[in-house]
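User: Second chain of the day. Same drill as before.
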Amino acid sequence: MPIMGLIMVIGIVAKNGILLLDADERYRAEDTSAREAMMNAAQRRLRPIVMTAIAAICGMLPLAIAVIGALCISVLLSLVATPTIFSLMVGSQGAAVPGAAISGAAEE
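Assistant: Same format as last time:
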């Protein structure tokens, strides 16, 4: 997943850069200084760049919520379901379970 995000970021930055430099070239063609042309281009492209960022964030939000939800479920399964299933398998007699000696050694 991180590679997908990296590819997405690179694509958005490239697109925004191309549009920004295109606007800069248009302002330079009108005989404005390089600094003033870039400032005008940045002001003109600010809203579309912010809108692209917001759209990308909103598009990725369901994925982020799914990942957070999956992490919460894994915590619950690790802390509740695993001990419950283990205690049901062992039963109330405390019967020996293969590998129990290994876990006892780790506590020391």
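Helices lie at 2-29, 34-90, 100-107.

User: Great, on to the next one.
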